[in-house]
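Chain A, query sequence.
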Amino acid sequence: MSGRGHLDAATGEYRIERTVYLGDDDSSSLIYFVSYFRYMAEGDQDFFDALGQPVMKHIDTGQSCPTVSSNCDFISPARAGDTIVQTVRISGPSRTSFRCEHEFSIDGTTVARGSVVRVWVDLTTMKPEPLPDWVRSATYRDPTAADA
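Chain A, predicted structure.
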């Protein structure tokens, strides 16, 4: 999946266009709910790559940001053959955690919305550590905000 998205440097928003394939759906021919969680995990990894921060680079240095919470709301149907635009944004960084927000749309209509909360940890001790500067600098910047 890597390399298919576009990073908007001004806002920090990452967009991916993906096709829903047979196998991403269930017996009702609708996208299977688990597929969105896989899309979010893949989207986060691709987003980090686009930021010049490949996940494997951090794992090799003994750090990573595992998921501690995730959710997804399913708003409208998506089916095999549909093209989904996935938008990913980092929000709400605290001292050791941040949220990756995901919105999925087809032809401008939102079909699902979810988020993944990640904590920056030392992989040896599994203890939280302060977020690296690259996470904070990648936080979404709303172009319509008053200070934009």
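Helices lie at 33-50, 55-60, 133-137. The chain has a mean pLDDT of 93.
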